[in-house]
Design goal:
14 helices, glycosidase, elongated, 3 domains, alpha/beta, five-stranded antiparallel beta sheet, Immunoglobulin-like, GH, about 575 residues, TIM Barrel, Malto-oligosyltrehalose trehalohydrolase, GH13_cat_dom, eight-stranded parallel β-barrel
């Protein structure tokens, strides 16, 4: 087979294949590329040495059997016999479920997670969104410090484990979305700078030098990232990608990297004959991210909407620190604005940033499903000092209100694993760095960060302590017990309604009508013939829902039909979904 590597500044490159050294030659057709022919099969170990330096993993390694620092291994993707015939599953009408392989089960593997996929099919979600799978040091971690962007973390099950997981998901009718990180690589096991200008000092990010998207050599770096993205979609039959923190992708070129990636994914979708999509995590509140390329946008199909989360979180908890401050002044107003306009910050002043932020979203051009709505995510739980979920502080009734607004609202809903049964387990920040100095730096940095907000150091879980990861694993006995079983039944009912009621997947943001009372702490909205009402207060509230006859589709607590004047008497910390044709 042909081995190849991009090393534009090298004077000599050698291939090291299972103890045999092969001189590589410059590719006359591609500047900066080196090639060599050598016998290989699935599993053959190899690496490259640049200018007689150490043997390093292949930047495009498909497998790292011994971790990020070990040799690469050849992967023959044709060896796997796919079982499921899969036409694909598009994003409109979807319900996503964010899942971390390492804590979804105590075993922390893709095969163990696959055995639990029946729970998700029964729940009614349509897509599983896997947190990053690229190799990282040690066994356990969040995955956002991965390297080898074409490979699968070996302790999770490697390439074969991912294929078995995707196959099982597709057999159950579930699409699979993968979280990928293009804005930085982990500090440990990252050998890309030895090969070429993958990073540039022209720009800086919170993680150091930026990925080179616009400096000399950036053509190949962009091709590297796009090739990785297409490989997940093609070789593993992934249905979509979630792109981490795209606001940190600094690109001054006229043809933005995200637009180029979007065009490449659309081209692959046409070639494969099944839908593929990209979901951005972006804090810019810029509608161009999810506007079609033909209309001057970047062409991504959707993005996370933190504004909805922040408004809902402040309405539920009353928290007002940090970025919650802007939303906490009038949380129900903020919630109403996001439900009808998509963004809360659409050019408004952000006290957290000390400047105006965002841009208005044109509701006549942008479909509601292009924004993802959620009450909890790995970020919003794991980046809290103790990784506490909403269930640690809220009553089951308020959790039901959060679920109702997420699952009947206009945005594509996304759940975080365990949310559907009000999991009592936290989800904390954990690492398994093999470099002692890096491990200590992460530990000190985490404690210093929260000490600045008044936390005692001893109250901050040690990321390197294996118990921190173990505490974060789901307890699969909980769904069989109360109050978890009741919350789970509520989620199932709401998801079923979303699939049954066309009005609940209507993409028209302009058709949503919202009423609320900030002081009484209730909010109601109408989507076509469906009316949804939530009462955040502990006391009952009378909510005007109109005089049309109403049928109760789902209610957290028993409720009577609205009175003759259209007043709905809703118990405290409760919610209801009505049909009013």
């Amino acid at each position: 087979m042909q081995f190849e590597v991009w090393a534009p500044q090298a004077g000599r490159v050698t291939l090291h294949r299972e103890g045999v050294t092969h001189a590589m030659e410059r590719d006359p057709e591609r500047a900066g590329w080196w090639v060599a022919e050598a016998e290989a099969r699935d599993g053959t170990r190899y690496g490259f040495a640049v200018d007689d330096g150490p043997v390093l993993p292949d930047p495009r390694s498909r497998r790292q059997p011994d971790g990020p620092d070990g040799p690469s291994a050849v992967v023959d993707h044709g060896r796997y016999a796919w079982r499921a015939e899969w036409p694909g599953r598009p994003l409109p009408g979807a319900v996503l479920y964010e899942l971390h392989v390492g804590t979804y089960t105590p075993e922390g593997t893709l095969d163990a997670a696959a055995e639990r996929l029946g729970h998700l099919a029964e729940l009614g979600v349509t897509h599983v969104e896997l947190m990053p799978l690229c190799p990282f040091p040690g066994r356990h971690g969040w995955g956002y410090e991965g390297v080898s962007l074409w490979a699968v973390h070996e302790p999770y099950g490697g390439p074969e484990g991912l294929k078995r997981f995707v196959d099982r998901a597709h057999e159950l009718g579930l699409g699979v979305v993968l979280d990928v990180v293009h804005n930085h690589l982990g500090p440990s096991g990252n050998y890309l700078p030895a090969f070429g200008p993958y990073f540039t000092e022209t720009h800086h990010t919170p993680w150091g030098a930026a990925v080179n998207l616009d400096a000399p050599g950036s053509d190949e770096v962009r091709a590297y990232l796009i090739g990785s993205a297409l490989a997940w979609l093609r070789d593993y039959r992934i249905d979509g990608l979630r792109l981490d923190a795209v606001h940190a992708l600094v690109d001054t070129r006229a043809y933005h990297f995200l637009e180029e990636l979007s065009a490449a994914v659309d081209g692959l979708s046409a070639d494969l004959g099944r839908p593929l999509f990209l979901i951005a995590e972006s804090e810019l509140n810029d509608p161009r991210t999810i506007t079609a390329r033909a209309e001057g946008g970047l062409g991504l199909q959707a993005q996370w909407n933190d504004d909805f989360h922040h408004a809902l979180h402040t309405a539920l908890t009353g928290e007002s620190q940090g970025y919650y401050a802007d939303f906490a002044r009038a949380p129900l107003y903020a919630l109403a604005k996001t439900l009808t306009g998509g963004f809360f910050h659409d050019g408004t002043y952000s006290s957290f940033r000390g400047r105006h932020h965002g841009r208005p979203l044109d509701r006549t051009r942008v479909a509601a499903h292009r924004l993802l709505g959620y009450s909890q995510t790995h970020d919003q739980i794991g980046n809290r000092a103790q990784g506490d979920r909403l269930s640690a502080a809220l009553s089951p009734g308020l959790l039901a209100c959060a679920a109702t607004l997420t699952l009947t609202g206009p945005f594509t809903p996304m759940l975080f694993m365990g949310e559907e049964w009000a999991a009592g387990t936290p989800w904390q920040f954990f690492t398994d760095h093999t470099d002692p100095e890096l491990a200590e730096a992460v530990r000190r940095g985490r404690r210093r960060e929260f000490a600045a907000h008044g936390w005692a150091e001893e109250d901050i879980p040690d990321p390197q302590d294996p118990a921190t990861r173990d505490r974060s694993c789901l307890d699969w006995s909980e769904p069989e017990r109360e109050p978890h079983a009741r919350v789970l039944a509520w989620y199932r009912r709401l998801i079923a309604l979303r699939h049954q009621q066309p009005d609940l997947t209507d993409p028209d943001l302009g058709d949503i009508k919202v009423a609320y009372d900030e002081r009484a702490r209730w909010l109601a909205f109408r989507r076509g013939d469906v009316c949804v009402a939530v009462n955040f207060a502990a006391e009952p509230a009378t909510i005007p829902v109109g005089s049309r006859p109403a049928q109760v589709l789902a209610a957290w607590e028993p409720v009577d039909a609205p009175d003759a004047e259209g007043g709905l008497r809703l118990p405290g910390e409760s919610c209801v979904v009505l049909a009013q044709p």
